[in-house]
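Incident log entry.

Two folding requests arrived from the same account within the same minute. Monitoring flagged them as a possible duplicate submission, but the sequences differ. Recording both here for audit purposes.

Request one:
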Amino acid sequence: MGPRAVFGQAALSIAEENEDVFLISGDLGDSSGLARFKNKFPNRYINVGIAEQNMIGVASGLAKEGYNVFTTSFAPFITLRSGEQIRMNLGYMELNVKAVSIGSGLSMGFLGNSHYGIEDLAVMRAIPNITIVSPADCAEVVKVVQASSRFKGPMYIRLTGGVGNPPVYNDEYDFEIGKSIKLKDGKDITIFSCGSMVYECLEASNILEEDGISAKVVNMHTLKPFDQHALDDAIQNAKAIISVEEHSIIGGLGSLIAEYKSKYRNSPPQLLLGLPDYFGKTASYSYLLNNYGLVKEKIAKNIKDFLNTR
């Protein structure tokens, strides 16, 4: 299953245990993996139609009444179209609403730029009081949904990748909002990634290792609040810091790291890998990832080229 279907299963699971869980969709119930949820809990599910601004308003009202509300839509619609409502109701009023974006990044590439979620992190990071989480694989989607159901306050959950996403985690592990996870140790460079790029970075680190480059790989699943200790460690010990994300190079994970690094007098050089600052092609997901260099072989090559120029 892909992240959407897994989200739907996880939402169903927490709703079976908590009567205060409520789901609202912007006419994407089946696409969000919520078919079973709406059939089992029809009184705790609302399809507001293609009206995302209204969706956030309805969710906010339910949150005021004590419900733990999850809302879902495609990334550009739930963030850009609903930006004012999220800013006021979630950011300013800090209501207990979890905005879940499906198809973030390039996974909706066959529908073109109208459905790309390439600026959403930049927008959401700029709004105070909103926690931002981007799970690395389907196992972590479950972890995030479970953790978010216990979390009191507004949250943006960014789902990237498509059906058949390769797993990052094969064993049980502890997940904590705001605390990154070191997936691989290394002494030369530190690679920070989130979402779909975590797997690609792990694979890229293996390619680098064959060339004698030891890379630490960190899953920075929470982008706000981010794990400052992990960044401090990289700044103090790594020869270079690499950020890789399925998002614009402006305003996302790479920008977050650069902003934090700026307070240091001396810090390692940084390579930002992500999507360029222009509207791209309409194509399949796999083609787009390869075209923008967000696959393991090209990530490894870009890192090697960067290190060779230092």
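Request two (distinct sequence, not a duplicate):
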Amino acid sequence: MIQYHKIRETAPYISWVYFFHAWGFQPRFAAIANIHGCDACRASWLTSFPVEERPKASEAMQLFKEANRMLDELDADFEIKTIFRLYPANSDGDNLVFHLTDEDAFTNGRPPATIDGKPKPASAYDRRLVFPLLRQQMVRREGGPFLCLSDFVRPLSSGVTDTVGVFASSVENDMERLYEQDPYKRILVQTLADRLAEAATEKMHEYVRKVAWGYAPDEQLSYADLLVEKYQGIRPAVGYPSLPDQSINFLLDELLDMRRIGITLTENGAMNPHASVCGLMFAHPASEYFAIGKIADDQLVDYARRRGVPVEELKKFLAANLQ
């Protein structure tokens, strides 16, 4: 399902902490986004900082003002696009197995996953797409499990299908090209574009949980709650510590056809426009984020075998994870 998001409707989902981080501000300065816009409130916020930090706080206040002015300007000409699909799927060891049909598009992004009110068995689908994953190698807590994202999906051996979501979001390509002759505005629009792609993803995921997938129809969370992920389920994007291999963008593209929202991939799997994000969605109540950490040669070789990609080629995508 493709969604089109107006910037003014997406702005409340922006994580200003990450915006200010991109400009070299510490998280405490991002609190300006939570302050009422009247002069008295802004002055009170400014005086809450030690004297030596007030010049920096004043800079943050001005940057936030200019960012919002630019958001108003962008709203007239641009929007953000998201696409998602919910697939019947299972886990098979460290792989996800997506069950596909000959239907190219499902109503509301969701597949017809039941027969007479019961989940379809895996054998009811025409074909499969195997989506290899990596297993955590670093100890997160004493006695804790070594996690893989496939752990949050019902196993193939159960004979009952589960559901896994796939998604992508992007700004319009021309947005990133604005203000070529004005370095300050160009950086400002690019950092806002990154945040808008993430914000639209947050907004889309809320719709998926409450409506399209519908596993949390009564969810009532504030914007602040959403940004600290108080909802059920996780949404790891490519590049997250649990999903570090950029080349899996090619697999996601097979499942989504990201060109439908203007995203193209380079030969190395990088997305264009740059302000784009894609990944997976899981609903399991116990699902959590984690880091794969460093992997040994045996897991690299096994992963390459499951991906059907030469080991040497995968090394360039997993350089940060190699021992």
